[in-house]
Specification:
The chain contains nine helices and seven strands, in the order H-H-E-H-E-H-E-H-E-H-E-H-E-H-H-E. By secondary structure, the protein is α/β, with parallel strands linked by helices.
Length: 278
């Protein structure tokens, strides 16, 4: 599993060589959902190398535990569990177990997501519901369970991983349900920032562009190529490490005065577009 992860995400190698001396999250107790692949795998390692105790989860049996075990073997504080986050009872049990294991919760990263793609005219109600369940509902179930632990800790940081598709529509791409769910994730972050402020809880969203992961989240190949080559300004695909660095900043005390913000990490896609050279 470790070898497969490194091969799939070569950028993860940079964590060991350039960030092993960082302690930007020293002593933080962190939950990250979706640590079986992609951003979740890289973020768990990056956070752990910066001094955090990080507990992750995922649906694929044994994978979150195996990824965490690889980090534990290197002397880092990490654990992983099998959890179906669409089940509110299972979500609460995982959160409460994590809080018990770590002695509390300081940071929650709502990263897990599984979109459904289909042209709007062909989309079924079942596909619509599954996208909302797997992209928005699980953010509610986990955050609801973590909320009292964050209050007990005297505050903390919650980061909802959204998408730039929650900010702008893109013609010819089959992502109505995905866009609606991710817009909801941004809206929820802003409202929870207002409700969490009296308790010292900061809540932000981070909106990635298209991330270079196996299968690109199930997006059609034509859509992937268009976004990378026609919409992004950076000239290369985003990697999980690009997103993990943004999450690290929002989780750390460096961003202590930042709340109710949606941070795009999308190669400029949501702010500008490439054009001809005159």
């Amino acid at each position: 599993m470790a070898n497969g992860t490194r091969a799939a995400y070569p950028c993860a190698e940079l964590i060991s060589t350039t960030d092993s001396v960082g302690q930007r999250l020293k002593g933080k107790r962190v939950l990250i959902t979706g640590t079986t692949k992609g951003v979740g795998v890289v973020a768990q390692e990056l956070f752990a190398r910066h001094g955090a105790y990080v507990i992750g989860c995922g649906r694929t049996p044994g994978v979150a535990a195996a990824n965490a075990a690889r980090l534990s073997e290197q002397g880092l504080k990490a654990e992983g569990y099998d959890v179906d986050l669409s089940d509110p009872v299972a979500s609460k049990e995982w959160v409460d177990l994590a809080a018990e294991r770590m002695g509390g919760i300081d940071v929650l990263i709502n990263n897990a997501s599984k979109p459904e793609f289909a042209p709007f005219g062909d989309m079924t109600f079942e596909q619509w519901k599954k996208s909302l369940e797997n992209e928005l509902d699980l953010v509610f179930t986990v955050t609801k369970a973590a909320w009292p632990h964050l209050i007990k800790a005297g505050g903390g940081s919650v980061v909802n991983v959204s998408s730039n598709n929650g900010m702008l529509g893109v013609g010819g791409t089959p992502q109505a349900a995905h866009a609606a769910a991710k817009a909801g994730v941004i809206g929820l972050a802003k409202q929870l920032a207002a409700e969490g402020a009296p308790y010292g809880i900061r809540v932000n969203a981070l909106s990635p562009g298209l991330i270079e992961t196996p299968g690109a989240g199930g997006a059609p190949a034509e859509m992937v190529n268009y976004i990378i080559h026609e919409m992004q300004l950076t000239g290369r695909p985003l990697t999980p490490l690009d997103i993990a660095y943004g999450l690290l900043f929002l989780a750390s005390d460096e961003s202590r005065f930042i709340t109710a913000v949606n941070l795009p990490v999308d190669g400029g896609t949501s702010g500008a577009c490439p054009g001809p050279v005159f």
